[in-house]
Amino acid sequence: MMPFVLAEFANLEQILPLYVVLVGNHAQKHLARPEGYPAHQIFLSRSGKGLFKIEGRQDLILTPGTLLILPADQPHEYYPIGSDETWDLGFVAFNGSAALPLLNQMDELIMMARLAPNFDDLWSQIESLWHLISLNGEQAYWESSKRIYSMLVSVLEGQSAVKKPTKNVYPSGQSNAALQTAVKLIHDHYNERLLLTNVARAAGYSVQHFHRLFVENFGMTPQQYILQLRMRRSVQLFEEQPGITVEKVAEMTGMETSYFIRMFKRTYGKTPKQYSK
Predict the structure, then answer these.
(1) Which GO molecular function annotations are given, in alphabetical order (predicted)?
(2) Domain range holding 186?
(3) Which residues lie closer than 8 Å to 139 by C-beta, 6 or more apart?
């Protein structure tokens, strides 16, 4: 086990475009963060099993060999499930001016439990970061900045090996009409509280089969599709109606205001108020 190391940067966060905030691993217990964590996080599940509850998302289960990327300030909680084995969870938190552009490159990986084909390499990089920061002085932070960048690229590299080609058109075959029905329902009701069960039912599939089929054909989950649709519509509203309030845009896109602000900032790199100005 690596007791977590909290990096104290002596104002290096003003210089480094990417820096490590904390890193470590342990037998994970229940942890709730209703306000989120002020840095972006990568979690690696090495053994055991745990459940993540993320505001506005379906619950995620992390099993051995999986990873999760969680953006800053996203409310969440997580805890082990199953009584027969300890949940060994590794984590590294990072921030900096370069962090958000890198996360934008990973958009379809954010807040999704993913198998990591290069899991052992990623785990070794967490261990390397931990030893570097715990055993060295201020100079370690320069090197750790390079290494966290390398780790993020490694995450992308590993996922590219298993990523299926995305399609921006409706698929051919029997699922075509069903998926078109589902997508039409999403576009007609994106500003309401859309339940995946209702969308799947409209397509004539179980939730699990619909989710799998949607990802295979559109390269993203239904929830990600809905969020992208809402974000695009919010930008249109700000452009079409100068002076419209953030609260009104959130209401018109079917989102709770604080959640809308977080998702808008994660998507566009600035708050709705900053954008509207």
Answers:
(1) DNA-binding transcription factor activity; sequence-specific DNA binding
(2) 175-276
(3) none
Question: Within a domain: residue 103?
Answer: yes
From 160, 183, 201, give the residue that closes a domain. Answer: 160
**What's the pLDDT tens digit per position in 225-250?**
888 889 888 988 988 888 899 999 99
E-assigned strand segments in 28-100 = 31-33, 40-47, 50-54, 60-62, 66-70, 76-80, 88-95
> CB of 223 within 8 A of CB of 237?
no
Domain count, the chain: 2
Q: Do 179 and 213 contact (CB within 8 A), yes or no?
A: yes
In the chain, which ranges are E strands? 2-6, 19-27, 31-33, 40-47, 50-54, 60-62, 66-70, 76-80, 88-95, 114-115
155 and 191 in a single domain? The answer is: no
CATH number assigned to the domain comprising residue 218: 1.10.10.60
Q: In what order do the strands lie in the sheet with 76-80?
A: 31-33, 76-80, 50-54, 60-62
Q: Give the model confidence (pLDDT) of 122-134 as tens digits.
A: 999 998 888 888 7
